[in-house]
From TrEMBL:
<feature type="domain" description="RsbT co-antagonist protein RsbRD N-terminal">
    <location>
        <begin position="9"/>
        <end position="137"/>
    </location>
</feature>
<feature type="domain" description="PucR C-terminal helix-turn-helix">
    <location>
        <begin position="311"/>
        <end position="367"/>
    </location>
</feature>
<dbReference type="Pfam" id="PF13556">
    <property type="entry name" value="HTH_30"/>
</dbReference>
<dbReference type="InterPro" id="IPR051448">
    <property type="entry name" value="CdaR-like_regulators"/>
</dbReference>
<dbReference type="InterPro" id="IPR025736">
    <property type="entry name" value="PucR_C-HTH_dom"/>
</dbReference>
<dbReference type="InterPro" id="IPR042070">
    <property type="entry name" value="PucR_C-HTH_sf"/>
</dbReference>
<dbReference type="InterPro" id="IPR025751">
    <property type="entry name" value="RsbRD_N_dom"/>
</dbReference>
<dbReference type="Pfam" id="PF14361">
    <property type="entry name" value="RsbRD_N"/>
</dbReference>
<protein>
    <submittedName>
        <fullName>Helix-turn-helix domain-containing protein</fullName>
    </submittedName>
</protein>
């Protein structure tokens, strides 16, 4: 392989240009520089791989410097990382090309060495690339990259053990038109709070925010609650919100999955408040969601309500108004007697009295079950 160093470097360069979008988009004059970089990064491989030695600390310096250069020139991080995988594959092909017929020891040894060492190289280039962006503060490109790192379970800053509260927001009226200036207002609001990382917003219909736990988890939750109120004003919409805590960067991906799972339950609530919910707040709804047979039986309880005008909507409004009949009547533009008549019909048709704790609890669970079935997974 050492004897074919130049040919191997050329093969790697050509593979990068063919298979990695950002390299292929570079002008042809840049390919001379790229070939030189391939030579520099391939040199430690040729030095250590034949003997099965791990890359030394000094060997990794060339990868750090290349990552720094790519970050400073705004080279797309995903393409940069992908380039190392493409280079490894092209190098393995070169190894196979020079192997004698029937010889498998060298290709197998090189493959095993690459499986062991490539993750180390990717860790080094990722950290070096991130370091450049950490120094650039809250610029959009830096923020996006740091959030990508966090959602992949990596620390977005030196505080590698710090936890993060993951909060997901969605408007209650999905698909509603976004007023002019709304996105800019949301961006300004988020930018005023230090330490937040975010993605999405009014234009995408979902906003993901991570809140660093700098002192206590309770304080981070207070920040999330205040943010929910302020965002609703900037977004000009009532919002559904859910949160989950990752005690370390490695736990953040699981926290995001939990927050989105919780948000689906929140969306099904007929009486969701204007705050971020936790999974522990919705244990009954979570149990219903996990039991298809129970969900079906609850949903069927509501079927008789379709015989009367707006009975289901009346029940939803009653819950949304905190069981306050005066507020419910006003929300539905009804006289209180008309509301009482409708609630009486709900009792007659379902056998459940919305004026009793048991009746309203079961009816609420039935509404949640019906809404869950209408939501995408």
């Amino acid at each position: 392989m050492s004897a074919r160093r130049d040919a191997t470097a050329l093969a790697i360069r050509d593979a990068l240009v063919r298979h990695v979008r950002a390299y292929g988009a570079q002008p042809s004059t840049a390919r001379i520089t790229l070939l030189h970089e391939v030579h520099e990064t391939w040199r430690p491989v040729l030095c250590r791989a034949p003997g099965g030695e791990p890359l030394h600390r000094d060997d990794l310096a060339v990868y750090r410097e290349l990552a720094r250069s790519r970050a400073l020139h705004a080279f797309p991080f995903a393409d940069f990382r992908a380039g190392f995988e493409v280079a490894h594959t092209a190098g393995l092909r070169a190894c196979l090309a020079v192997a004698e017929p029937g010889e498998s020891v060298q290709p197998v040894a090189f493959t095993a060495w690459g499986v062991r060492e490539l993750p180390r190289v990717l860790d080094v280039v990722t950290e070096s690339y991130l370091d450049v962006h950490r120094s650039r503060g809250n610029a959009p490109a830096a923020r996006a990259l740091l959030l990508d790192a966090l959602l992949a379970g990596r620390a977005p800053g030196p505080e590698s053990d710090a936890g993060h509260l993951v909060v997901v927001f969605r408007p209650r009226e999905r698909g509603a038109a976004v007023a002019a200036g709304t996105t800019a207002a949301v961006e300004r609001l988020l930018g005023e709070r230090s330490g937040l990382l975010w993605r999405g917003g009014p234009a995408t219909g979902e906003l993901l925010v991570t809140v660093p736990v700098e002192s206590t988890l309770q304080r981070a939750r207070e920040v999330a609650r205040d943010l929910a109120v302020d965002l609703a004003g900037a977004w000009r919409s009532r919002l559904h919100a859910a949160e989950a805590f990752g005690a370390s960067p490695a736990e953040v991906p699981a926290a995001l999955r939990e927050a989105r799972r919780t948000l689906r339950l929140v969306t099904a609530l007929p009486d969701a408040g204007d705050r971020p919910y936790r999974e522990d707040d919705l244990l009954v709804e979570l149990a219903v969601a996990r039991q298809p047979d129970v969900r079906l039986r609850l949903t069927r309880l509501l079927e008789p309500l379709d015989r009367g005008p707006d009975l289901r909507r009346t029940l939803e409004s009653l819950l949304a108004c905190g069981l306050d009949r005066q507020r419910t009547a006003a929300a539905l533009h009804l006289h209180r007697r008309s509301l009482a008549y409708r609630l009486g019909r709900i009792r007659e048709l379902t056998g459940l009295d919305p004026a009793t704790p048991h009746g309203i609890q079961v009816l609420r669970a039935a509404l949640c079950a019906a809404r869950l079935d209408a939501l995408p997974e």
